[in-house]
Design a protein that fits this description.
The complex is a heterodimer of chains A (about 50) and B (about 475).
Chain A (H helix, E strand, L loop, with lengths): L7 H10 L3 H5 L6 H4 L2 E4 L2 E4 L5
Antiparallel strand pairs in A: 1-2
Chain B lengths: L1 E2 L2 H6 L6 E4 L3 H12 L4 E4 L8 H4 L4 E5 L23 E2 L22 H4 L3 H8 L8 E2 L4 E4 L2 E2 L5 H4 L1 H6 L3 E4 L2 E8 L4 E8 L2 E6 L3 E4 L5 H12 L13 E4 L2 E10 L12 E6 L1 H7 L4 E7 L4 H12 L1 H10 L8 E7 L8 E9 L5 E7 L3 H20 L3 E5 L1 H4 L10 E2 L4 E3 L23 E3 L14 H20 L1
Parallel strand pairs in B: 1-9, 2-3, 2-13, 3-9, 4-20, 13-24
Antiparallel strand pairs in B: 5-8, 6-7, 7-16, 10-11, 11-12, 14-23, 15-18, 15-21, 15-22, 16-17, 17-18, 19-20
The chains are: A alpha+beta (about 50), B alpha/beta (about 475).
Amino acid sequence: MLEKNPSRRAIVNLLLALPFVPTLLGRPKPPAKEAEAIVEVNGWILKKSDLA
Amino acid sequence: MIFDSYEAFEAAALAPKVVVIGSGPAGITIARKLAAAGITVAILEAGGREYSDESQDFYRGRTVGDPYFDLDITRLRYMGGSSNHWAGWCRVLDAHDFQPKAWAPDTGWPIERKDIEPFLSEVHDILELPEFRADVPISDDMRWVQLIKSPAVRFGEKYADELANSQNIALVLNTSVTELAGDGSKITGTRIWSNGRQAGLLQADYFVVCAGGLENSRLLLWSNQTSNGGVVPHTEALGKYWMEHPTFEGGNAILADYDEFEVDAANEAFFSPSPAAMERLEIMNFGIRLIETPYPGAKRLIADLACSAPDLAEWAAVKLGQHLRCAAQLYVAWEQAPRADNRIELSATDMDQAGVPRIELHWKKSDLERRTILEGLRLFGRTMAEKNLGRVRIDDWLTSGADYPTNQELAGHHHMGGTRMGTDVARSVVDADCKVHAMANLYVGGSSVFCTSGECNPTTTITALACRLGDHLARKIAA
């Protein structure tokens, strides 16, 4: 797809959709307490839920 | 009165009660305080009314240790001193900065923040500051603090007319002090260098050295050497415990709400740790400067993406014909642990035109400081994540333990320590009144008296301490 020179609208739509990718893939969310735990991944300081 | 040469000053046959060496923020502030009390003062300024390469050449020197700025560009030698290139960033040291840190040797001041607070209203007038707002805790660990970008007062310009019209202040330009002469209990005079030659000994009842955070140590070291210890009888700490505010880009951030923190005109907001967090982690103080890049709409999305997926973001930016960077950059400046090894020495081989040895600055950042920036950014990142304020990424050079980057700011041009304040003569040079230990009439103004540096820019605290010293000296002379 990337070689087909997408329109600006398509790129923006893709970016807007990124946060919902985990949901679309149906990955299970961690338990609420565990989701709040802080982890460091590749320099990022994240909540575990960020990785779901 | 302003004299453009020492010869003109001599011809006026004035007999100042106090000689102040240096016309930067500390020197001019102290002189104005004394003059307001009816005390006559001569301010000796080594440079002229404007910048000149010839004058700056006296400031050349050498640094041993970590990379640092050329010493002749990191301060200015003319009327108004280094206020002439000051950026105008203002904040006063916090109360906890004056307290000792049990995990860091040689921290703690002999005075407290409350000792300079009575002078802060004067400081606001001098530096043309609005009132500071109170710090805002964003967690138990981190505070959103205010650092005011003031109009950057150039002391030489601001007070030129006042000095010219003053009957109590004689500002003497193009007049440097090569050494103070002392007998171990008092200063007997200052040796003057003017027009390329020695110009005699100027006497007064009191002397205040305000030549800057490097030159104060240099002048006292050289004077002590030529006076066989008669200027600073207790030399153990002289020139030592020198400090800077190292500054590096340490990471990026994505913010949940770019309106959460009010930014200043440069799109910057500032954060510092709580005293409890510093104590728990056993780290020094630090300041995080968050710089927002004001991208709207889709550009913001790509900029945020640039923090987490730089390759994808670059592809998207190219497709959109944009050059974007991560939406918020994080710079860290931190408090150096005071260490005697970080010191100013006199060169054994290199002299300036007046025959005074040039500076050899020994300066290195410590392991504690490296831990301070890494743990500090983690602390900030945890707060941002836990409070859902955003997400922080720490740069690879920090997490991998790589060397400090060589293509960044390095430090703040803040020269502190060397003649630090204290009660122990083995670990300090001046007492709580900024008087050199065991000397009856020698005082030091400026950031060389700082015991610790805190995380904030020093000029506001320098000016407050100068008001306090001027007030103290005026009362002492009046008594």
